[in-house]
Amino acid sequence: MYRRILVPLDGSKTAEKVLPLVKVEGESHQATIVLMRVIPPLRSSLMMPPKFLEQIAQQASEIARDYLEGVAAQLRAEGLSVEIEIQSGPPAQCILDFAENTQCDLIIIGARGETGAIRWRFGSVANKVIRARTTMPVLVVST
Known about the structure:
Elements: E1 4-8, H1 19-29, E2 32-39, H2 50-77, E3 81-88, H3 91-101, E4 106-111, H4 117-122, H5 124-131, E5 138-142
Parallel strand pairs: 1-2, 1-4, 2-3, 4-5
Helix pairs in contact: 3-5
């Protein structure tokens, strides 16, 4: 039985294709759904002043929060318990660290094609998550 299900979303409609399965799992286990958005690190080599980089990071965080709140509202309207989480850093590592540190029982992540044979099948972040050494179940949904 799952109590906390982590659902990383990147803000795309493709990633949201996992939501029907998330609803089913959340309802059947009466689990709390944790929607997560990870903001990748900005490249500091762009020769931008630190204050400008901070503003960009703040705006990215606000956009992520608005996005997750919108998705959460849809799930809450269907009776699910939903939390949101925003992290900054390498996406796969943030997902795995958060899941382990907050006692998540399951990760549901979408896979989409990018480049290369493995990435084409799983997507780079999903690939890193499923290849990590963790005892937590990871459900990869083809998107």
